[in-house]
Amino acid sequence: MPTSSATPIKTISVLLSAPLDKPYDYSLSKEMDATPGAFVEVPFGARTAIGVVWGKGQGNIPQKKLKSVIRFLSIPPVPETSLRFVDWVSAYTLAPKGAVLKMLFGNPKFLEPKKKDRYEAPFFDPDYNQPILNQEQKNAAAVLIDNVNAQRYAAVLLDGVTGSGKTEVFCEAIAQCLRQGRQALVLLPEIAMTAALIDRFTERFGHKPVLWHSGLTEKQRRLHWQAIAHGKALFILGARSALFLPYPDLGLIVVDEEHEAAYKQEEGTIYHGRDMAVVRAHVGNIPIVLSSATPSLETLENVRQGKYGHVILPQRYGTAAMPSVELVDMRAHKLSAQEFISPPLLKALEDALEKKQQAMLFLNRRGYAPLTLCRACGHRLECPRCTAWLTEHKASGRLHCHHCDYSMALPKVCPVCGAEGRFAACGPGVERIAEEVKERLPDARAAIMASDTLDDPKAAQELVDKMNAHEIDILIGTQIMAKGYHFPRLTLVGVIDGDLGLAGGDPRASERTFQLLQQMAGRSGRGEDKGHVFLQTTAPEHPVMKAMVKGDRDAFMAIELKERQAYRLPPFWRLAILTVSGLDANQVIRATQELAAKAPRDSGLRILGPAPAPFAKLRGRYRHRLMVQAPRTVNVSQVVREWLTTVKLPRNLRLAVDIDPYSFL
Ligand code: ADP
Ligand code: ZN
How far apart are CA 92 and CA 215, in angstroms? Predict the structure, then answer.
């Protein structure tokens, strides 16, 4: 814990932005003033490193060996709130403190401006272009504005159907925060979504928000980091990493599309951006808004327990109505193995084209075909480094692994039986749907939207512009199309394989599928013409499909909550996954067994496993894991941390701890 004493001290502890869990002592010359949070340069091994003063010296280095601080950097010290946030995140996620601090730095290079840096932090006018809200929107905005005025912690779920004006409503809270001269942060789950929102915010506040995400150049990030740390940038739009920046006066956080699993960071420091945003709001004693048309079960449960407030926008803005949803029972249509668009969907596409309306075809699979197999012997082409099939991509003409960077040319002969030219592409990816559209609707102008065809936000913007200019009739894509876009001429959404997300061992599979399908459906009929959704499925009886047709989210969520309770899953129970990985399968298995044997007894934890992870091999590493289930009353992070102090893994193995896992692969 950092101390708040500002009196000069002789020995101080300094936390470095490196994967170290504790601060180290350094000495100070008398005239130096060591405010906690101050940035310092210190000797570190043979080099020097930048760190942050964490507090008084702890005596963990003998007096004689103490090295002294080289200099203080001329940046405002990290605010107390940010220091406590680093402590909290580290304690919760089990990530070393220094690794969390690294996210606050962004990059040590951002800490000092370059001589030629010129950056005028933009002025945001809260009243630049204020819309006239309808009554429901006004009521919702009033609640959020009250919270901003109160200047203390309050979490509210802004729950409105797609197109109800949630963005307009939370902009009112941002405007109020700007009037107070405090910083406001909007978080998005994916960079690809920023394009759609930058324009909206620019129109509303007269200037493009200050951005923070990995797609910016190093120079942009340095300028923005400086503007944020000096409190000059007041309105920030960012990815989850923006949460860790050292805001001197953050007054509001908005988490847009709060249900998105993409908020979970799965590598390095494993954390959930939405959950940590709530923690940040709590530590900073400021309001937070969680916005979604399809809130997560976790958030709905927090609302039910009275922990979060709830404001509802039940209708679309203006005259736009919710789209109709029709199930297409694929068992009733005998399509050939090369066809994936059913007759009713094809007919609907033809109708939309005739009326000069736009359509979207949704399939959550990149590439051409997810599986290539030898028709002679049945051999499937797999990644040599992962437990995964290779996906054919027509664009590159190669087979790619979607889990590592492995790729290969399609072989001429089967490596198992030697048969020549007998490989068959099985199943569809978006490229294959595009091919089918070209064959069956040759006059339609089609385009593909998937993460591999849009590698930067600019490409996303170009596609959005083309859609808006009606230079595209049918947009074919993955879940990347589901979020935030507003295309007034889009009236038809066709879901190629509605069952896709339901398979596999993910306890949130139904919830996610429902959310994704609702978000996709939400793209349709946002203008004057009514929208239609055709949902192809082989399981029309599934609760997800029934709820989609009725548009009955609450009924679906009620069923889902019961199941979660029965199976001891979140939000009623807590989960953690401990994955051991290494190059030697037997060594990995043995280590996981030893870890399991040391599991704490009488701690309330239930340990499942050891068992191979579904991706038993990933990027050449074997993976074995334990799943931990715990009642909500148990501090899982604490118990796991203590457990791990009793185990010493061989150095060539890696252990990843995932508290509150969202990926079960
Ligand atoms: P959501 O975020 O709930 O999906 P949006 O904020 O994108 O909804 O609103 C849908 C569309 O309706 C947008 O084009 C938005 O500009 C428009 N809109 C919503 N509320 C208003 C309003 N009060 N005045 C003018 N336009 C509005
Ligand atoms: Zn692979």
Answer: 28
Is residue 257 a contact partner of residue 485, using CB atoms and an 8 Å limit? no
Decide if pLDDT at 563 tops 50. Answer: yes
CA of 179 to the centre of ligand 2 (A): 51
Domain that holds residue 221: 135-313
Same domain, yes or no, for 153 and 190?
Answer: yes
Q: Which residues, chain by chain, have CB under 5 Å from ion ligand 2? A: 383, 385-386, 401, 403-404, 406
Ligand 1 binding site (Cβ under 6 Å of any ligand atom): 131-134, 137, 160, 162-168, 317, 486
Taking CB atoms within 8 Å and a gap of at least 24, the contacts of 581-585 are: 581/618, 581/621, 581/622, 581/623, 581/624, 581/653, 581/654, 581/656, 582/621, 582/622, 582/650, 582/652, 582/653, 582/654, 583/620, 583/621, 583/622, 583/652, 584/622, 584/652, 585/622
pLDDT in tens, 499-531: 988 877 788 889 998 998 888 888 888 888 889
Nearest-CA residue for atom 24 of ligand 1: 131
Task: Summarize the confidence of residues 382-393 as an average pLDDT.
Answer: 95
Question: DSSP H helical segments within 450-542, as ranges?
Answer: 457-468, 509-521
Q: How far, in whole angstroms, is CA 34 from its chain's centroid?
A: 37
How far, in Å, from the CA of 173 to the mean position of ligand 1? 15
- Judgement on whether residues 413 and 496 belong to the same structural domain of the protein: no
Tell me the pLDDT of the chain averaged across its residues.
Answer: 92
